């Protein structure tokens, strides 16, 4: 898949794979509410990044702004999951590391679009 050659797409793809691997370790009571919402957000982020990468220049900025909002919401949901002990600190740190990398890439992409 050539879309996944774009580094930010690969990171979002990998983020979902990590979420998927963690799913069975999440307590049942949390798996179908907070964790399902987190996984759904990751898929929406991946979808929007792919959409932006295929869009013409003028359409990219609003899509990437949506990605930014969803990424921040994902951060909040994962912090909440950690605080209610749906996930442990190790999983939280691992997920946040990937999310922070996506955020850096997204910030660079947004900056380049605003300068152009």
In a nutshell, what does this entry contain?
The protein is mainly alpha-helical and 116 residues long.
Can you describe what's shown?
This protein has 116 residues and is an all-alpha fold. The protein has one domain: de novo design (two linked rop proteins). The protein has four helices and no strands. The model has no long low-confidence stretch (mean pLDDT 94).
Largest sheet: none
Shape: elongated
Our count of domains comes out at 1
CATH topology: de novo design (two linked rop proteins)
Can you identify the CATH superfamily? Answer: 23S rRNA-intervening sequence
- The percent range for helix content is over 70%
Write down the Rg: 15 Å
Percentage of residues in strands: under 5%
Q: Helix count?
A: 4
Kindly name the structural category.
Answer: mainly alpha
CATH class: Mainly Alpha
Number of E-type strands:
0
Q: What is the annotated CATH architecture?
A: Up-down Bundle
The succession of helices and strands, N to C, reads HHHH
Kindly report the average pLDDT value: 94
- Uncertain residue segments: none
Cα distance spanning the termini: 28 Å
Describe this protein with a few key phrases.
single chain; mainly alpha; de novo design (two linked rop proteins); 84% helix
Q: How would the blueprint of this fold be written?
A:
Elements: H1 7-22, H2 28-54, H3 57-83, H4 89-115
Helix pairs in contact: 1-2, 1-4, 2-3, 3-4
